[in-house]
Amino acid sequence: MAPTTTTVTEASISTAVKNQQQRHPKARRVCFSFAAYAKKVIQHLESCNVPIAEGLTDDEFSAVESQFNFTFPPDLRSILQEGLPVGPGFPNWRSSSSQQLEILTNLPILSLCKQVSIHNFWAHSWGDQPNDTNEAVQLAKRFLKNKSPILVPIYRHCYIPSSPNLAGNPVFYVHGADVRLASFDVAGFFHRVDFPVWAATEPRRNRVLDGDDGEFGAAVVVDWGFGWVYEGCVLEGEEWRVERRRGKGDDDDGRWR
User: Is residue 218, in this structure, part of any structural domain at all?
Assistant: First the structure.
């Protein structure tokens, strides 16, 4: 059966966040600057035996951003300026070849297009699915490239939207048609270090996350690591939407239980 789009209200998101915080309480100290937080992130990664190279320079940031046509969000930029993780799974923005980095930045779109090619995924907003597989893939690729924010790789299959260029964008796990929220922001993604005062405590309401009806997309309430997982999400239009395949036991109205 074709996937359906599911949304939940802002109130249900707030409830989910509160429930998560009650289940997983954590004492938090605060940092008062990007630089202080970035330093703690790098120190934590070093304590986990992740190799850290010298941070990226302004010229190196400019070269990467110019080549791949995106701007690093300021919180991620501060971390990479403090130190560049070069362990397995981390993108090496300094030493990796242009081809390797291009593959990394294009991987989310390529993965979804692969699902389209094997008739495992199609978004309603793309219109009727063409019978010709190549035509369907090209149509999906055009929608994803032209109407979706570029995703910047952080670690393995985890990415952060480059737009809007503000601290606090969500981090997503993207692998094939499996898209999950990893964290409300990059600060939460590195949750084992102290949270800064600007760390997000709820999803940012913006063009990347909002649905057509003004409600948050259901993707933003997925709690990565605690079992709230959806199969099949997609960057649709200018926001994240959930494309849910119904399975045995799903309600006819498609509501998320």
Answer: yes
